[in-house]
Design brief:
Helix content: 40-55%
Number of strands: 10
Keywords: Cell membrane, Glycosyltransferase, Membrane, Transferase, Transmembrane, Transmembrane helix
CATH superfamily of the largest domain: Spore Coat Polysaccharide Biosynthesis Protein SpsA, Chain A
Radius of gyration: 23 Å
Number of helices: 14
Strand content: 15-25%
CATH topology of the largest domain: Spore Coat Polysaccharide Biosynthesis Protein SpsA, Chain A
CATH class of the largest domain: Alpha Beta
InterPro entries: Glyco_trans_2-like, Nucleotide-diphossugar_trans
Subcellular location: Cell membrane
Largest sheet: 8 strands, mixed
GO molecular function: glycosyltransferase activity
Strand order of the largest sheet: 3-2-1-4-7-6-8-5
Protein name: Glycosyltransferase 2-like domain-containing protein
Distance between the termini: 51 Å
Amino acid sequence: MVLLALTILSLIGVFVFLIKLGILAQHRVHIKRGQYSRDDWPSVTVVIPARNEEHNLKVSLGSILEQDYPADKLEIIVVDDFSEDKTRQVAQQMMSQSVFNARCITGRPLPKGWIGKSNACMAGALQASGEYIFFIDADTQSDKSMLKSIMDFTLAKEIDLLSFNPRQLMVSAAEKTLLPGLFLSIASFMKFHESNDPDKEEAIANGQAMLFKTSAYQAVDGHTVVASEISEDLAFAKAMKERGFKIFWAFADNLMSTRMYTSAEEIWHGFSKNMNRIVEVNCFSQALALLGKSLFIAWSTPVLLLLSWLSYSSDPSQIALFTIGINLLMQIVLLITYAVLATQLFVPIIYAAFVPFGISLQGLLVLNSFRLAKQKSISWKGRVVE
């Protein structure tokens, strides 16, 4: 009877998890490539904060310099945030022959209470002249029609802050093993449809790509409003929405791509910066509960399937047979879900079998993130973030 009770509990948990994912899939909004008919384009300033990004910049800046946007309407600013490599030289060399108004500036000294990235973004914004300001990470790569596509989308919907999810590239075995499940678990906490609803409190943004209407950005004092926030993207979305500005979250797999991390170590350290903020965990008991939840979702079904089989082997009862059937059905549904996920993330379908490891990882990341938050400082890109 204990096995049956655990099976029913697992069934409910997995069902709720899948329902959340189904709602997420139903409300996904995709920005389509190249579907626009306008001739009059607003001026845009693309700001790329860069600290020790000499290798990534060749791709990210290179793809921005190839945009099919009107030359007189696009300004590109790379903010060299006191890099210790050849970031500045690479940027200057690449922009020297550009048809756009492109330049590399030196970031401003880090004021007390500011996070490095927000400070670099603010330095770029202070020199921006566009009607829109588009902040992108230095490890992104854009399709040449990206800028026109997102601007057309933004203008059509009269958006003040557009943020979107690029295609997440996964190359190494560690990325393919851990990231699909981790992304899936994170997504189960997101309410994209509520973020896009002005009457709901939910506010989501992605710091990899944030397009602001300049007047709205300035109305909230720019990055000053999120100066001390490690998760400045989520904080910015919340600040904009609270002040009555229209924010919108979308997907743009065909317009931009990025490779966030290249190894298990980078994944661990990178997501440990702010995982507790992403899932809004504020105390140790919440972190511990989330760890239990992630382990339960990831492993309850296969473990119960094994236990049911062992129980039936020793005592072939109807209850044991029933639990085998229920757990087997749930496992098949989960594997199909994981296979669809792998396909959508462009990784080999064999990695669907490893999705539970990524789901489990989120709980561990939340605990580590909470631990680091209590230390009140972490190291990132050679700086101590307090």
